[in-house]
């Protein structure tokens, strides 16, 4: 597996600091399991963070702040993604996704057919999570409508591939997109393209008919 598209440095720093939103953190951890380069960058970020914390060893926390901090560290969401250094072999589903999805293989996913050629699976997340996490299945040859994003979006390719103006994204590649990016993914593989997508707000489609169909697509 050759990874051509990686996580943004700011995303890796946020993951190391434990401040990345749950849905984005799941995608980041899954990509890191498949990507040696991002795994090494994360280790560096954690080492820098550890050094900064060492400078504050003499700072005392109030009992209330300490209890609140420990409570966050023990949350299910954090526990699900705080083992990102585990490696995944090509073709395998990363451990963090096996736990989060509750399946051992993408072939076990129970898809909901939203529109012709499009399958969707809503990934359950802890109550109160503000971002959405979805598995998206696109039949070969599918072209998504041109759309933008009102917030951050991350897409991790798990099977097949697609292309847009930013290049070709195959299994293991991640698109870590800012809110001002517009694109039109086109499935260019000979098999179904399956992606894991996290987003803050629904996509902003340019086409009138795409906007009409949006409530049915779940995007």
Task: Provide key terms for this protein.
globular; 219 residues; alpha+beta; six-stranded antiparallel sheet
In short:
It contains seven helices and eleven strands. With 219 residues, it is an alpha+beta fold. Strands 1-2-3-10-5-8 form a six-stranded antiparallel β-sheet. Strands 7-6-9 form a three-stranded antiparallel β-sheet, with no helix packed on it. The protein has a two-stranded antiparallel sheet with strand order 4-11.
Commentary on this structure:
It contains seven helices and eleven strands. With 219 residues, it is α+β, with helices and mostly antiparallel strands. The strands form three sheets. Strands 1-2-3-10-5-8 form a six-stranded antiparallel beta sheet. Strands 7-6-9 form a three-stranded antiparallel beta sheet, with no helix packed on it. It has a two-stranded antiparallel sheet with strand order 4-11. The chain starts with 8 loop residues before the first helix and ends with a helix. Mean pLDDT is 78; it is low at 50-56, 65-83 and 206-216.
User: Order of strands across the biggest sheet?
Assistant: 1-2-3-10-5-8
Query: What do the pLDDT scores average to?
Result: 78
**Which bin fits the share of residues in helices?**
25-40%
Oligomer, anyone? Answer: single chain
* Helix/strand order, N-terminal first: HHHHHHEEEEEEEEEEEH
- Gyration radius over CA: 18 Å
**How many distinct beta strands?**
11
